[in-house]
Design brief:
The complex is a heterodimer of chains A (about 350) and B (about 350). Chain A has about 350 residues and is of the alpha/beta class. Chain A is about 40% helix and about 20% strand. Chain B has about 350 residues and is α+β, with helices and mostly antiparallel strands. Classes of the chains: A alpha/beta (about 350), B alpha+beta (about 350).
């Protein structure tokens, strides 16, 4: 299959693995930002092909994992109200809130529907003018353009029954938070190719300069990941830092200008709580006041929602790369995909789920 | 556990049934193993095969039942009627049995167009005629509007197992070859693309088909050296192989490169972030056979219209008992685990 097979050729992968082996003279620790990268590293067994001196640390780039508990609880609260159709991407449905999750809310009668795009939610709002249709707008800069477009179109169409529960988060502030941590041991980043397809790479340059760290914007296929790792390791071995693009078939330094303009029109930067990590200043998007009519938090009374996090789960340390899933006392015992204590066990991009599913739990 | 008044599935964990309990993964297994089997405890049930095997005056009969709920009722490559016949015929075939007779139960929702019911019944008739199995008894109930999804069908089948045939998951042995009769994940993706209104450039067609004749050919060639047969329906190839590995206490090693999958299905899975190994099939048969008969069985499969693309996909090994491993396309190794519920498409 075109655009897939050429990035999964064994001979090329082995060539890159050998080049990495030849290149590396000492231990290095590299963080891949995005959960999609984490999954493919483990799914294709790349972690087991690399020299043991290289430690891969899984980053916070899983929107499902970092969406704060309080917003999950708010989502469930909205979904349970009569007359609401609550729509969400599939992998948010199983994420545990304080007491329940959206799938359980559905089993108990809430009208929760899985959609593939915020525009599908918009179509539902048009089809059911008598119902309130709410879309759970989670994600990094990758999903923000689509969500901005849905809100923009809702306004053009004059829809009064469509709103989003906005939980957008941004990558660069999270990278800064990780690098500022006194426990930080990350020496290079694989930045997320899809995020940079939208945002470009310019905002990463000051980070690379200030922290003197190599940042390689990397794709998601096995050869992308191996090549991104090779580029990062080469920079580390040569003592260089700066921003490089591995994912050149999609990423340019300026990104997608039209998408960014629309995002800027609809969203503004705000402080945001990250699940397991805490408040990171200027790390999220919320709707601008001019778009408040489409803000589910304004349309519904959510004053009764109080979030309560599990005390055992170490999701925060995992998302910051301080610990790996098997180091959690609950991993694979109290916390499994059937009984997740924290979001990284549930999301298809979550590090704990990746370790569990691809067999590192026993 | 039998006779106990306490529900074996802690109420605190699952106060209500969720869709994942029917997804064919870990939660479905929990319902079966912790609630149903210990309650109805008996040897035929405890074999946990696709059907029960009963001995009657020297003859061995396979007895199987399956209920069908599918939305939409009509999908490319089939409908709930043909699916209901194929499903039970195939469950019997996976016991090594030739189907003798079927029973059909219908639960109809008030308001179902008579035209739809007629199409479904005709489709069942055609599917049964293709196999040559009569539908000999049945039942009909109608529920109020809103209490059913148009139509639910249950089919139950009785089949006879030829002498010398012994199919059981426990018979998978190290050295055995794992064969499949063609490309995977077609049914699940076809139904999903219809249900969710996903438009792909190529039409995705369900593989729903009866496998009795194919299995008969396989057994003619392989006989008692055919150890396990399994149709990887809900939960897909991954769940079926995990169940076999666990029951036989053997490891199974797959080669990703060898697993047949059509480009359209593979593309849809890539786009949706689904792993085809966990997607349902309705016309596929996994055969685990002794190595000395693998070539012969493969040839028999390929000579049959339902097995033209048959291929070996892996082998049974001594290592990692109870687990399924796969060598990825790029040479890495990973575990292929059971899923806990249904796969959900990803955000990005």
């Amino acid at each position: 299959m075109r655009f897939v097979d050429e990035y999964r050729r064994e001979a090329d992968a082995q060539k890159l693995v050998r080049a990495i082996e030849k290149l590396v003279t000492r231990p290095w620790t590299i963080m891949e930002i995005c959960g999609g990268q984490t999954h493919n590293l483990i799914k294709f067994g790349i972690d087991r092909l690399l020299p043991s001196s290289i430690t891969l640390v899984h980053g916070p780039g899983c929107p499902v994992c970092v969406t704060p508990l309080e917003l999950i609880d708010k989502a469930i609260c909205i979904a349970q109200q009569p007359n609401v159709i609550f729509t969400s991407f599939g992998d948010m449905l199983r994420v545990p809130g304080s007491a329940s999750d959206l799938l359980s809310a559905r089993a108990q009668g809430a009208d929760v529907r899985m959609v593939y795009s915020p525009l599908d939610a918009l179509a539902l709002a048009q089809k059911h003018p008598e119902r309130e249709v709410v879309f759970f707008a989670v994600g990094f800069e990758t999903t923000a353009p689509g969500n901005a477009m849905a809100v923009w179109q809702a306004k053009q169409l004059g829809l009064r029954n469509f709103s989003i529960l906005c939980a957008h988060v941004l990558v660069p502030p999270a990278m800064r938070a990780i690098l500022d941590s006194p426990d930080n041991h990350i020496q290079a980043f694989l930045a997320a190719g899809h995020v940079c397809t939208v945002m470009g790479t310019r905002e990463y340059e000051p980070i690379a300069e200030r922290y003197r760290i190599p940042i390689v914007v990397t794709g998601f296929e096995p050869l992308d990941l191996l090549q991104g790792l090779h580029m990062a390791l080469k920079a580390l071995e040569e003592g260089r830092w700066g921003v490089e693009i591995q994912y050149t078939r999609s990423v340019t330094p300026d990104g997608n200008v039209a998408a960014r303009q629309l995002m800027h029109q609809v969203f503004e930067v705000c402080d945001r709580q990250w699940r397991g990590i805490g408040l990171i200043p200027a790390s999220g998007y919320r709707l601008r006041p001019a778009w408040a009519d489409f803000d589910a938090e304004q349309r519904f009374d959510l004053s009764g929602v109080v979030a309560q996090e599990s005390s055992v789960c170490i999701a925060g340390q995992i998302l910051q790369g301080l610990k790996k899933p098997p180091q959690c006392p609950a991993f694979g015992t109290q916390c499994t995909p059937e009984h997740p204590l924290g979001a990284p066990m549930v999301s298809s991009e979550g590090a704990c789920a990746a370790y569990y599913q691809y067999g590192q739990h026993s | 556990m039998a006779g106990s008044l306490q529900c074996p599935i802690p109420i605190s964990d699952y106060p209500v049934v969720t869709l994942a309990h029917g997804g064919g993964g870990r939660l479905s297994q929990m319902l079966i193993e912790r609630l149903f089997v210990p309650t109805f405890a008996n040897a035929a049930l405890e074999a946990l095969h696709d059907g029960a095997i009963l001995e009657l005056e020297g003859a061995r009969l396979a007895f199987s039942t399956d209920s069908f709920t599918v939305s939409p009722l009509f999908f490319p490559g089939g409908d709930i009627g043909s699916l209901a016949i194929h499903g039970t015929v195939n469950d019997l075939a996976m016991c090594g049995a030739w189907p003798l007779a079927l029973a059909a139960g219908f639960i109809l929702e008030e308001g179902l167009p008579m035209e739809d019911l007629w199409r479904i019944v005709l489709s069942m008739q055609r599917a049964a005629a293709e196999v040559g199995v009569p539908v000999v008894t049945g039942d009909t109930k109608v529920v109020e509007r809103g209490k059913g999804d148009g139509i639910f069908i249950n089919t139950t089948g009785l089949g006879v197992i030829p002498p010398g045939v012994h199919i059981a998951p426990q018979r998978a042995a190290p050295g055995d070859i794992v064969l499949i009769n063609g490309p995977i994940a077609e049914h699940g993706i076809a139904v999903m693309s219809q249900r969710e209104g996903l438009a792909f450039e190529t039409e995705l067609v369900s593989d729903s088909a009866p496998l009795a004749d194919l299995v008969a050919r396989v057994l003619e060639v392989g006989g008692s050296r055919v150890h396990v047969l399994r149709d990887p329906t809900r939960g897909g190839v991954a769940s079926a192989l995990n169940e076999i590995a666990a029951k036989a206490c053997v490891g199974i090693r797959l080669e990703e490169e060898r697993i047949p999958i059509g480009d359209a299905v593979r593309g849809a899975c890539e786009i949706l972030g689904l792993d085809p190994l966990y997607v349902a099939n309705e016309g596929k048969c996994i055969a685990i056979v002794a190595p000395e008969t693998a070539d012969g069985v493969l040839e028999a499969m390929r000579a049959h219209p339902r097995g033209v693309h048959a291929t070996p996909i892996g082998e049974v090994v001594n290592e990692h008992p109870g687990k399924v491993f796969m060598r990825s396309r790029i040479g890495g190794l990973r575990v292929v685990d059971m899923l806990s519920g249904e796969q959900l498409p990803r955000i990005c």
